[in-house]
Amino acid sequence: MDKIGVLVTHKPLPYLEQELTRRGCRLFRLWESPESCRLEFCRENSSEIRAIVGNSNFGADAATIDALPKLEIVASFSVGLDKVDLPKCKERGIRVTNTPDVLTDDVADLAIGLTISVMRRIPSADKYARSGAWKKGEYTLTTRFSGKRVGILGLGRIGLAIAKRAEAFDCPISYYSRSEKPHPNYTYYSTPVDLASNCDILVVACALTEETRHIVNRAVIDALGPKGVLINIGRGPHVDEPELVAALVEGRLGGAGLDVFENEPHVPEELFALDNVVLVPHVASATIETRTAMADLVLGNLEAHFLKKPLLTAVV
């Protein structure tokens, strides 16, 4: 990949940046430009840029693609592709890849970790012990996770991995997806509201599309109810965030564990004081092992494309 121009839309993992540089790529660091100047940056360097490395927050929208007439491939450092204009890429014959499978276990692990953290109030209990409040009395009783009914929105790779982990806690599994899956031990519901009405914990694990945007709305939240817990390790826009905040503040929802938010990195401040909410900064796949494997997939796809070999994880 010697001298190939690569537009990197976000500050990358140091390992990925080092490996791209070691392979002779010329890196164009879009994140270093002010947001208002980024299209102009692309146009100014359009004669050299043949590849984009994006992620779940900064991919390749139509305007960016139009500004890069020599663009050949978009290699996304993520599974989700909602930040890539796939129709535009198909129209232009631009290849698109992502990084599936390698992050499944970490995301599923965090989903279970968030669930237990919310139900057992682990962050709050940690503060209680650190503050010395324990000397004044025992911590409040919490709720067990084992045996609770777990509902999953989206039974793809990550949804299935979450289901298998929850089964180990003797949790009955139910799910909603576009169609019923061949998993007879899991109960299928044909609407998100029906699913939410029949579970204690609702986990969002589907892809973000126009159909799944705000799939968790007020009706779903109210169906989950004041003892229910919402876990979101999908994308922020899956959830109608103002409705979620209102339900938590008003006590219409029992708790939430959130890895993603509608307007990242902005988190609704109303959630900060709630002991029944656990907030983490979009870190579900953020382990050394997984991020290195994701970087290797990005590198492998770029190398395959420029060596005229089959792509490792082709989407388009």
TrEMBL record:
<dbReference type="Pfam" id="PF00389">
    <property type="entry name" value="2-Hacid_dh"/>
</dbReference>
<feature type="domain" description="D-isomer specific 2-hydroxyacid dehydrogenase catalytic">
    <location>
        <begin position="40"/>
        <end position="315"/>
    </location>
</feature>
<keyword id="KW-0521">NADP</keyword>
<dbReference type="InterPro" id="IPR006140">
    <property type="entry name" value="D-isomer_DH_NAD-bd"/>
</dbReference>
<comment type="similarity">
    <text>Belongs to the D-isomer specific 2-hydroxyacid dehydrogenase family.</text>
</comment>
<dbReference type="GO" id="GO:0005829">
    <property type="term" value="C:cytosol"/>
</dbReference>
<dbReference type="InterPro" id="IPR029752">
    <property type="entry name" value="D-isomer_DH_CS1"/>
</dbReference>
<feature type="domain" description="D-isomer specific 2-hydroxyacid dehydrogenase NAD-binding">
    <location>
        <begin position="113"/>
        <end position="284"/>
    </location>
</feature>
<keyword id="KW-0560">Oxidoreductase</keyword>
<dbReference type="GO" id="GO:0051287">
    <property type="term" value="F:NAD binding"/>
</dbReference>
<keyword id="KW-0520">NAD</keyword>
<dbReference type="GO" id="GO:0016618">
    <property type="term" value="F:hydroxypyruvate reductase [NAD(P)H] activity"/>
</dbReference>
<dbReference type="InterPro" id="IPR050223">
    <property type="entry name" value="D-isomer_2-hydroxyacid_DH"/>
</dbReference>
<dbReference type="GO" id="GO:0030267">
    <property type="term" value="F:glyoxylate reductase (NADPH) activity"/>
</dbReference>
<dbReference type="Pfam" id="PF02826">
    <property type="entry name" value="2-Hacid_dh_C"/>
</dbReference>
<dbReference type="InterPro" id="IPR006139">
    <property type="entry name" value="D-isomer_2_OHA_DH_cat_dom"/>
</dbReference>
<protein>
    <submittedName>
        <fullName>Glyoxylate reductase</fullName>
    </submittedName>
</protein>
<dbReference type="InterPro" id="IPR036291">
    <property type="entry name" value="NAD(P)-bd_dom_sf"/>
</dbReference>
